[in-house]
Amino acid sequence: MSDDKTRNGVSRREYLAAAGASGAALGLAGCLGGGGGGGSGSGPINTEPPEEEVTIQIAADSNFSNAADDIVQTLREDGGLPENIDIEFLAGSFTTGDRRSQYQQILSAGQERPTVMMMDNGWTIPFIAREQIANLSEALPESITSQVEDNYVQNMVATAQNGDGDLFGIPLFIDLPTIQYRKDLFREAGYTDDDFDTWATEPMTWSEFSQAVAEVQEATGTQNGFLWQGSSYEGLSCCSFIEFMGSHGGSYFGEFENYFGPVGDRPITVEGEGVVNAIRMLRTFIYGSDDDVALDGYSEISPQAVVQYTEEPAREPFTNGNAVALRNWPYSININGAEDVFGEDLGVMPIPYAVTEEESEYESIGGTTAAMGGWHLTLNPNASDLRKRAALQLFKALQEESVRLRMAEIGGWIPPIPDLIDTEQTRSLDLIGRYVGSLAVAAENSLPRPVTTVWTQESTQIASEVNAALRQEKTPEQAMSDLTSSLEEIESSA
Hints:
Layout: H1 12-32, E1 54-61, H2 62-66, H3 68-77, E2 85-92, H4 96-108, E3 116-120, H5 124-129, H6 136-139, H7 142-151, H8 154-157, E4 170-175, E5 178-182, H9 183-188, H10 193-199, H11 206-220, E6 224-227, H12 234-246, H13 273-287, H14 311-319, E7 323-328, H15 330-336, E8 346-349, E9 370-371, E10 373-379, H16 385-397, H17 401-411, H18 418-421, H19 424-427, H20 436-444, E11 446-447, H21 455-470, H22 476-493
Parallel strand pairs: 1-2, 1-3, 6-7, 9-11
Antiparallel strand pairs: 3-10, 4-10, 5-7, 5-8
Helix pairs in contact: 3-17, 12-13, 12-21, 21-22
């Protein structure tokens, strides 16, 4: 399963890159009647560094704010950021939907600051469509934009482009989820380093995974088995459920080529067997064989609290030693792999699977599936000319490979550049270097969320219905039938 070949011999990476490049244009054109949002801005930015002292604010999250000194140091020493440009990181909410609402208020009010905003790749396109962020293809020199368009993860770049292919965001990092687990606990249950080496790049089936976790939990008396994010929020619809569903061969809109549109003219496939079985598996994880829709071959390994968990509530019990395994993002690897937490006893593996690509109804879906998270840096078009010039120097510094590699080391922020994910350099990095093999498998098998101008509405409905099914408030079939009706209404009114 580490091989990313589809049944027609085309790699999943190639398939998704081609679909992503064309799909973003379809998604915007389907809602805007043509080329998509033009974007705000005042033409090219002066490329000469400002001579004055200037501070630019970057709206980010607490992880970036906490690592501000180290980030600025590498931007200066490795990226050549001038000393007279100071950077202030603003620690926004860790919940992606809260940040989206905050940016909407700031940009709608025409505020000049922050100068730069860290935007989730899942909701950058609506800001492009509303013409609220600067068109970087017009503002930045081609030496920067062409490097992004030619060398970065293509289906991530597509989430920052309009229908004409103009670029509105510089990918800052790609988020690649994995399963983190306690090697020390698995050793107590009789597993060995040979098992861990195999799991690092060869995904298990979900059945094998659940049985192994249950065995370890029982053998070690650990409070929790497997923790993940099941709350009714963006992270469920965009990410964790995309993985559970995709690894069962299920999809929101059939083939991946439909994920970016055209809105109103694509199949809605959430009532399919793969989607329903993913929910049944999760309910088995939570409630065991007593659940009316439990699947055979799966063990009860998750606490009922997972239906309320977002990233941090899921991570904290694991970090505190109260869980066997955790689904989370690379920032969590940096926390849990630290010497004062688990050190080299932290294991990482790709997301398990239930259905191979060959067994899936959809050519581009199935097998190990990693939701493609990640964040772009976008430019506030209302910023002063001086701060825009300073921001250009920031974007320029970020193009240096040494900056990208150092940021991976500082905070687990994986470079959004395929050639930098698994290399001799990245393998030599402290801590995160131990796990780049697993992250590379995740990158090869990544799926972005279906980003269109209606995704915000659809995401809310998806999260609500899936969460209702996880809580046993609805059967999986009823929840997905209701979701079909909601998605059809959203699609038809777009």
